Amino acid sequence: MLAIVQAGFAEQTITKSRFIAMAVPCADEREVTAALRAFAAQHPTAHHLAYAFRLKTEQGIVPRFSDAGEPSGTAGMPVLKLIEGRDLINVCVAVIRYYGGINLGTGGLARAYGGTAKQALEATKTMPFVEMKSYPITITYKQMDMVINALAKCNGNIVTKAFNEQIDLVLSLPVDEAQNFLNRFRPDAGNA
């Protein structure tokens, strides 16, 4: 699976209709909603906002799409097929349409939405998907620099921190490396 690390955008005019697409990373449905609202706000007079997204959740992979009032299967479905065909995860691709007064037919619509989405996806930057998960950990003040250095090496990060007698952290770590990371900093690991 691949994840988008840099968003992509595209625009084209087909038979007087203007199509504008964005492809952005989204970790969950809340981020999808926020991205779609922001895109719609940039184009308040657009006639349609079709989209598709594919997310990895605890329940598995969740694919969704919307044709946004276009004939069934002509707008969101071609976009979702592109996402699935490229094996992208945690991504939302949306296509705005400004209607130009000429009907494109179902085949024309599918090609227009899919083609614009494809251009936006081609403008993105991707990398292999790394599943991340949050883990709580308590460390000493002496361990903080070591934890920060180890996080940088495994592309993890600190989600929350609370400074008390010790430091309570919630870390976002790659699932494949989490157990080794946490074992390095457990209380009896001898690195205090």
Describe the structure.
This protein has 192 residues and is an alpha+beta fold. It has two domains: 2-128, Ribosomal Protein S5, domain 2 (2-Layer Sandwich); 132-184, Alpha-Beta Plaits. Helix content is 33%, strand content 38%. The radius of gyration is 21 Å and the shape is elongated. The mean pLDDT is 92.
- What is the number of helical segments per DSSP (H or I, 4+ residues)? 5
Uncertain residue segments: none
Strand order of the largest sheet: 2-3-6-4-5
Please give the alpha-carbon distance between the first and last residues. 38 Å
Return the string of H and E elements.
Answer: EEEHEEHEHEEHEEH
- Determine the CATH superfamily of the largest domain: Impact, N-terminal domain
Shape: elongated
Class of the largest domain, according to the CATH hierarchy?
Answer: Alpha Beta
**Residues in helices, as a percent range:** 25-40%
Largest sheet: 5 strands, antiparallel
* Annotation, overall tally of beta strands: 10
The pLDDT mean sits at 92
